[in-house]
Structures are given as structure tokens and as C-alpha cells.
Amino acid sequence: MSDCNGLLPDRWYENAEKYPDKDAIVHWVTGEEPLRWSFSELLKRAEIFAVSLKEIGVRKNDVCATIIRHNKNFYPLYLAISLIGAIPSVLAYPNPRLHPDKFRQGIVGMSKRSGLDYILTENELEPILKPLLDDKNNTIKGLLYPFDWDINKKYEREKINEISDIRKDTLPSSPALLQHSSGTTGLQKPVVLSHKAILQHLDNYSQAICLSCEDKIISWLPLYHDMGLITAFHMPLALGITTVQLDPFEWVLVPSLLCEAISKEKGTLAWMPNFAFNVMADKIRDEDLEGISLDSLRMIINASEPIRYNSHQKFYKRFFQYNLKPSTIASLYGMAENTFAITQSSPGVSPATIQVVEHDLREGRVSITSDNTNSRICVSSGKPIKGCRIRIVDDTRKELPEMFVGELAISSDSMFDGYRNYPEKSLEVLVNGWLYTGDYGFKYDNEIYVIGRKKDIIIVGGKNIYPEDIEDIVGAVEGVIPGRVIAFGEFDEEIGTEQVSIVAETNIMSEEVRKKLKSKILSATMAINISVKKIYFVPPRWLIKSSAGKPSRRTNKERLVTS
How far apart are CA 484 and CA 549, in angstroms? Predict the structure, then answer.
């Protein structure tokens, strides 16, 4: 493997020299011939963007947030930010249902915490984003519209050399990118990763999946998510592998696009959250798969949500007739704080599974059973990758033996140093070099099984949703008693992911008026781009409070289920 003491741009230039005409990124758009960026052409376009950014006034270590849809010029633009020593950060393009005020509120929240300097975006968002420039509560210096620039402009070589000079005193420990955890307002936790951490991680993880120069990655994953950004963007670019990028919005509408791209491009690797296995198995019709073969695929890796045995079974049953091998379905556990992967199941071998007693698992013990009643099949997320160490600990952070459920704590060579400008949150989770993840799991036969969250974050389709966001907005709806709302996730076996449920106290007794209140709540949550599956109305003083004086989500959820 290559030296990890360099910078990401060093790897890009090495690959442009080694594989000048090889496809680096294949930009896929439905109904069009894919646009193919070679490694050399990608760097040439990136240099043009980089000079333009420098001339506009973007400086080294400025945080440049991109809010851009699926666009062929996004890739060189992202590279350009790094070429001038600035820090790229990919943000989600707003869903049309998201209210502009809520979107701006989220940007302001991230700005305060992360110190966003510039937003690089599209003209369509100008009316929404322009008010940010007059708001003194954020750090944003300017809005840039890079796709309006002359991207075919020829610069003197001297200008290009000035770009490389900027990086001469950049250290491997310098920040390379900034990621934000999911959320809808200002609750996102900013994760900054260094060049060294990323390169070390990519080399370690590539060994875990036996990556070779013959591999080809196919991805519909959004690049604002660490799974898409690391596995389907940074890893292939750093290691000289081709990646095929599909539009996430197009995939949602037509999930068979992934199968089509795998078949036509002879893709070998893909990553998806658990819910996507169910979506593809349930929504893709036979007529969408005419002429499709998945025989080139060697690993399709389930990550970012608790892994479900039934989802894997359903996926294989649906696609085995299209030459999907059973050992192709793999599993992983990862998080942005560790760049990405922490564990990985072995290539060419189906993930290990064990059937356990459901009641004992809830009590913190792992009891293996062959009785199908009141049991659960747990799927292994694999073994720790090179450079990662894992402990399972109890509430006092004392290490537990195998077959006991506890919190996962990790230590690794590619971990972040703490949340940017968020020391109090960093101190909560980082202790003596160990990151306490907030995830529950256990060890068995040297494999790691992740079974859920210690905290109350709801994971819907691979996206983290903070209950506080929902509770705040629902508590403000007229008819709901303020401060007397809880939100939680309920797993939906059919779709393979959690759904959002709400319990709200109200004085309203009329069923007709409650229906109107329900509509108001649904409208309020849709304004922050959250879909609610169930709303439970309860009388005043029904919700049980925690010792901190707030309604306890877990206790009230259990009460609701048993009542």
C-alpha cells in the first residue's frame, strides 16, 4: 500500500500519472450516455476550479460547504477545494418539502458549530440562502455559484503551480474534510478528519475487503453521508479504482438503476443501508430486470443501520435468479468518527448468524437457542479491521466478557480527535483514546454483533433523526400540551428500517378534532422533512418523566407497547 504520511491530493496526482486514461468517475444519468472522467481529466478540471476559488478569495483552511445536486462537475469542484488547502464539506440539497426557514436554521446551526466560510451551490437556491449573508449570527462570508464560471478557461502554468505551492507546508495531520452527522436543525456534530486518518483508514479497509485495481464500485449513496463519501468517492480516487455515481433521487424513484449499472459496468462492489435491501427486493419488477446479470458483483455490503437477517434473505431470494451469489451479501459496522468502517465481514463468506433468546437479549445476556419462538436471529457485522480495537462495556465502562450485551467502545488509527468546536460533546464520548459509540452489541466467537442504540436517535433509511427536533416542533402545535411530547423509532419489518412514532398529550377528546390535530402535526413534521408513521394521543399527565424532569422516551415507549 502507499505511504499514509502524504496528502489526499498526492494520491490523486499519483493515480493521474499511473492511470491517466482509466475511468476515475463514471457519472450516471438516466436516459443519457454516462460521462466518464479519467483520472487525468478530472485533475485538470479540478485545477481550473482551484485557481478560480483562489482568485475569488477562498483561502487555506476555509470551510467550503457544497450544496449541489447530482452534477458531473461536482467531483472536480470537490477536489479543487482540497487542492487549495481549504476544507470541503458536503451538505444535503434541500428536499422541496423542507420549509426554507428550517433549512436556513440548519445552515446557521452548522455555521455556528463548524465555522462554515463559503457555500458553493446552484442558482436555484439563491433566494433561500442569500438572507444568510445579512445574518450576523453565522460565519458565512459568501455564496459562490461555481457552475456559472468559465470552466474551460485556460490558465498559465504559473497559476497552477501557485496552487501546488499552497499545499507545500500542509501536514498529514491537517484537516482534510468535515462531515456532519444527520439532523434537521443545529444539532449536527461536526467531524473533522485529517489526511493521515483518511489515508490510513482507506488502506486498512481496502485490505479487509481485498480491494484490487480490477474492482469497480457502483453507488447511489449521497455524498453527504460518510458511507457514500468514503467508500464510493475517497477510496476509489485514492486507490486508483473506478467508481460509478448514480443520482440518489433517481435511485429512490427507480431502484433497479443499481442493478442496471452493476450489469452494464460489471460492478464488483456496492454499499447500502439495511432498508435499501428491502426496497430493492419489494419494488423492482421482473420487467425492470430484463437482460440484467449480477454475476460480476462480489460484495454488496449492508451498513449504517442495524442489520436484519430477514432483509438479507429477502434480497437473495429476489435476485438469485439474476446470478447473485449468496456469499455476495456482506455486513459492516462503521461511523463517521472513525472515518468509516470499524468491522467488516469476510469477503466471499456469508456473515455469521446466531439465533438467541429475545428476552435474555433485552436483559443483557446472549443465550443461543434453536427454538424459533420468542427468538431473534442476529447477524454479525464482522471482525475489527486492521488498526481498530473494540471493547464491549457496561454502564460503568468496565469491559464485559463475550456473550454479554453492552456499549461498543472503539480505539483506532483513523479516529477523529473530537467534534469541531464542541468540547463538551467530545468529552462525553472520548476518554483516554477510546470512543464510546452509544451503540449496543456483543461479541461471540470473535465476531461483533450490533443490535441497537444506547441513546434515543432514530435511524430511518440510514439517516439519523434526533427526537428533540420532532418534539420541539410538535410541542408548538396548537392543541398539544407543550413539553409533553416524545418521539421514538419503531422497527418496521416490511420495509427493513425504523419508522417515526409520536406520543403527544392533549386535552382534546373529540375524535373529529383529534383528526384535525393529527393533520397539523403531520404538516409540521413534513416542514422539517420528516415523515411520521404513527401518532398516539394520550391524556394530560400520562407521560412518565425521567429523573431529569423530562418525559422518558424509552420508559414511555415500553409503557405504550404493553398498555
Answer: 11
